[in-house]
Amino acid sequence: MGMLRCFLVGFVGALVLAALIQAQDQSGFISIDCGATADASFTESKTGINYTSDANLINTGVSMSIESDLKKQYQRYMWTLRSFPEGKRNCYKINITRGSKYLIKTGFLYGNYDGLNKLPKFDVHLGANRWSTVNINNGSINEVNEIIHVASLDYVQICLVDTGSGTPFISSIELRTLTNDIYVTESGSLETYIRWDMGSNIGYRYKEDIYDRYWSYGNINNWTQLSVSISSADALEQNVYQPPAIVMSTAVTPSNDSAPLVINWMPDDPTDKFYLYMYFMEIQELGTNQTREFNIVENGIQRYSKFSPKNLIATTLYSSSASSGSEIIYSLQKTKNSTLPPIINALEIYKAIDFPQSETFKGDDDAITAIKSIYGVTRDWQGDPCAPVDYLWDGLNCSYNKKESPRITTLNLSSSGLSGKIDPSIANLSMLEKLDLSNNSLNGEIPDFLSQFQHLKILNLEKNNLSGLIPTALVEKSKKGSLSLSVDQNPNLCESGQCNVQDEGKEKEKKEKNNIVAPIVATVSGVVILLIVVVAVVWMVKRRKLKALIVEKDQSQISPQYTEQDDLVLPLRKQIYSYSDVLKITNNFNTTLGKGGFGTVYLGHIDETPVAVKMLSSSSVQGFQQFQAEVKLLMRVHHKNLTSLVGYCNEETNKGLIYEYMANGDLQEHLSGKHSKTKFFTWEERLRIAVDAALGLEYLQNGCKPPIIHRDIKSTNILLNEQFQAKLADFGLSKIIPTEGGTHVSTVVAGTPGYLDPEYFITNRLTEKSDVFSFGVVLLEIITNQPVIMRGEESIHISDWVKSLVLKGDIKAIVDSRLEGDYDTNSVWKAVEIATECVSPNMNRRPVTSVIVIELKESLSMEVARKKHRGNPLTHSGVSMNLNTEFIPHAR
Ligand SMILES: *[C@@H]1O[C@H](CO)[C@@H](O)[C@H](O)[C@H]1NC(C)=O
Ligand SMILES: *[C@@H]1O[C@H](CO)[C@@H](O)[C@H](O)[C@H]1NC(C)=O
Ligand SMILES: *[C@@H]1O[C@H](CO)[C@@H](O)[C@H](O)[C@H]1NC(C)=O
Ligand SMILES: *[C@@H]1O[C@H](CO)[C@@H](O)[C@H](O)[C@H]1NC(C)=O
Ligand SMILES: *[C@@H]1O[C@H](CO)[C@@H](O)[C@H](O)[C@H]1NC(C)=O
Ligand SMILES: *[C@@H]1O[C@H](CO)[C@@H](O)[C@H](O)[C@H]1NC(C)=O
Ligand SMILES: *[C@@H]1O[C@H](CO)[C@@H](O)[C@H](O)[C@H]1NC(C)=O
Ligand SMILES: *[C@@H]1O[C@H](CO)[C@@H](O)[C@H](O)[C@H]1NC(C)=O
Ligand SMILES: *[C@@H]1O[C@H](CO)[C@@H](O)[C@H](O)[C@H]1NC(C)=O
Fold first, then answer.
1. pLDDT digits over 650-667, tens only?
2. Annotated binding site, which residues?
3. Of 696, 756, 707, nearest in space to 735 by CA
4. Calpha distance 721→215 (Å, rounded)
């Protein structure tokens, strides 16, 4: 049978515009015409895609045009290009949405733009990793590189790299946002290997394809072509992969009716990992005694049995784990009962590529970018500062640690024509070991922050115009031998006690001044700017509060006078209960609901309404602090997914908190069956609880200023009310992140084993991502109903257990078996994907809560859609099935 080859050549000129079949906009598209004049912006008539110039995304390279003869074969966006005769690596920096999945396409049409007729070969990098080698074989053919990639930063850098085989250039860059739940891999990004519209004689892209995938047509000489006309997209029942109706309307069958339909290819490297997506739809009218049924066999292993494509319903079959080998053979074999041969409408094959190198630590990247712009550094500083290793920026050195982002350890800007002061942004390179600013024209004083670096061993400031006193801390470090300090040939610099008599007076004056200023400057290690920000924020918050209070006053006419302090106390006052009130409310502590670390919780009633009263054990000093923290917090926060505070009692040793009563206890009780009226949650109900909890968490992080870290997210702290709406409880351990600028709080390790962020455990650094980790663990519990730590011969954490099964693609083993398969597989995969991202050991890889909420909602809507369609035989939803996990015929 026909051997498939990679036809990754976009014959854009051959595109034929078919009738517009789907209303759609270009939201989520970024379409860049490289080399176009700075303000260029135009719409391609063939596709309707709007392109803009690359001018504001890069400031190197030169604009060129392809030779005019070729222009008529190509759309306008291919006519110009940007060429990079200078520099080893030149980079585009394009803003995108972090955590989103993108189809990224880069186009290269040489078109003899330089009149040399010499075909170049060069590399393309994506961020810190090599992406591909562009090898132009034919100057009149547009070579397209395509990748499906999830962005880990809020920008992506695409770099053209000179490898000594010709000048790099680029013609176009196109980014298309995909939904995150399609093209899911075990690891890595996906490079397009083949995308074929079977049985067609023309290629399609946008607007036929809403994701602008280019479907090319292949060599199909031994296959029979079939086609049907689909008048509108509505006639086709779609699935999440959204194959274009026009692509699905053609198909092939083997020309010999009894022979199998074979798709085979031979990878260049047998360890390459491939993912296959097959698209099926019945397009023939079948007679009453006609059937089309076939088995799908991969290298002799049956992957799917008795598959029967459905009429006008697009079905995508894909492999959730990769295939590899020296030859990969997929064979579609007719079953005995089948009267018709197998059929296939479209096919995609992707090759997984790993991008193992993480980008430079963001704080370092930001700092060095600032330094570059402040001093106007003219070096070839492009792309990621530290990676790949052999493209390290000239004058830097970095430390590389497998798991973590590279950190800048050396900054050498000697003899670089720097002028002005020593800039405070240098202080942010907190891992610096060597700093060389010698032989420049730097002036001003030596800032104190230079003595604050923990690891600095070499500081060279020779041959500048620095003046004033050398900070004593630096001199001391140098005397102790922990720092090699060079300050020679700065004519106006002096060390304490060695300055000449005339200057002595001034020095004294300055010293006195310094004595006042220095402590502050020193403790914040030069980040004076941060201090100002903090002040501004506090001031803004105060202002806002004040305004809110005034409104309240106008409306309720209470509290004619108040001071700044009342700010907090005023709303509290309404909800204070005396100890005798508490006794009445709880009927003398008649009913105990539970015992916590800091006291006992009782059932109470205020005007018939049930409440939960948490009394603090009087001995607990820590508890008292928690109590205060919790009161302060709960007064500030209000959200439907956070347990709300009704009031509190604070009479000497009698301290209590009164909450709304959560009638159905906590999530853990139900999952484990320990609740007296245990409810078994369906998949949909589980997702609703997860969404509720995520919304509560998101509010704490994004709705509160400053944000709040809960610190003890666990399934026993997710409470359920009468309607089983979930709310986060127990803020006793919560910590407020003190400033908007700071991202973490160092604190004593607290929390619950199994839920605790391993990174926090080691570093004592508490961040919002610590809560994300704990939330991920809860999500895994919801999905699997397994204990957080599985105790057997050795203890296994739930996240490791799930990850091992994910690698096997074994979703059925992951999901709580009591659900008995009653769920949408894609919905579960999505939830598992979110959860495993949340429990990533590297906190940078964990998603932000707002993304978690969106993703969980998507997962929920998949499940809801499945249920809606179930039981109504007329509205089958288009399906996408997972080859490796759906061995059983007609599962569901
Ligand atoms: C395709 O068909 C032709 C005859 O029509 C035959 O000679 C050739 O071997 C076939 N190719 C393959 C790969 O089966
Ligand atoms: C594309 O550009 C045209 C003209 O500049 C504009 O009218 C149209 O709304 C744009 N289309 C989209 C989808 O942005
Ligand atoms: C990209 O985002 C950064 C930070 O938000 C912003 O400063 C910059 O102007 C943006 N660049 C473009 C080209 O929009
Ligand atoms: C390059 O491709 C064009 C268009 O397919 C073709 O006409 C031409 O012969 C090719 N040139 C070479 C050198 O292969
Ligand atoms: C059709 O395929 C069957 C099974 O592979 C084979 O036995 C038969 O010879 C083929 N017929 C022709 C005409 O090639
Ligand atoms: C269905 O099968 C019967 C008996 O096998 C045959 O006579 C008839 O022609 C078939 N009909 C079609 C539409 O193939
Ligand atoms: C073939 O079809 C018949 C009738 O529909 C059915 O009884 C039989 O089990 C089928 N055979 C196989 C192998 O599926
Ligand atoms: C960079 O640092 C590494 C060790 O971290 C060292 O081996 C290497 O020689 C350094 N490179 C330069 C140019 O200083
Ligand atoms: C900085 O670079 C210069 C030359 O580029 C070199 O002579 C000097 O030793 C370097 N400084 C350090 C601290 O490595």
1. 777 777 888 888 889 899
2. 614
3. 707
4. 51
Q: b or e along 773-795 (b: 16 or more beta carbons within 10 Å of the residue's beta carbon)?
A: bbbbbbbbbbbbbbbbeeeeeee
Separation of CA 222 and ligand 1 centre (Å): 6
Note the Cα 262 to chain centre separation in Å: 38
Q: Measured from the CA of 289, which atom of ligand 6 is nearest?
A: 1
Residue 185: inside a domain? no
CA of 95 to the centre of ligand 3 (A): 6
Nearest CA to ligand 1 atom 2: 222
Query: How many domains is the chain built from?
Result: 6
Query: Could you give the residue numbers annotated as active site?
Result: 712
CA of 369, nearest ligand number: 3
- Supply 849's token pair: 């809560």
Q: Is residue 187 part of a domain?
A: no
Q: How many CB atoms lie within 10 A of CB 150?
A: 16
Q: Nearest bound ligand to CA 207?
A: 2
Q: Are residues 233 and 202 in the same domain?
A: yes
> Could you tell me the strand order of the sheet in which 458-460 lies?
396-399, 407-412, 434-436, 458-460, 484-486
Nearest alpha carbon, ligand 7 atom 5? 337
Q: Do 754 and 791 have their domain in common?
A: yes
Model pTM greater than 0.70? no
Domain around 257: 193-353
Q: Are residues 53 and 123 in the same domain?
A: yes
Structure tokens, 243:
């194959």
Q: Which atom of ligand 5 is nearest to the CA of 260?
A: 5
Q: Is the CB of 289 under 6 A from ligand 7?
A: no
Task: Indicate the helix (H) or strand (E) that contains 191.
Answer: strand 189-197
Q: Give 17 or 501, the one with higher predicted confidence.
A: 501
Q: Predicted confidence band at 10 (pLDDT cuts at 50, 70, 90)? A: very low
What integer is the mean pLDDT of 583-590?
A: 89
Residue 459 CA to ligand 9 center (angstroms) comes to 11
Q: Report whether pLDDT(540) > 80.
A: no
Q: Residue 68: CB within 6 Å of ligand 7?
A: no
- Rounded CA-CA distance 256/56 in Å is 57
Q: What pLDDT score was predicted for residue 741?
A: 39
CA–centroid distance, 50 to ligand 2, in Å, is 6
Residues with CB under 6 A from ligand 5: 256, 258-259
- What's residue 825's pLDDT? 86
Question: Is residue 213 domain-shared with residue 296, that is, in the same domain?
Answer: yes
pLDDT at 638: 79
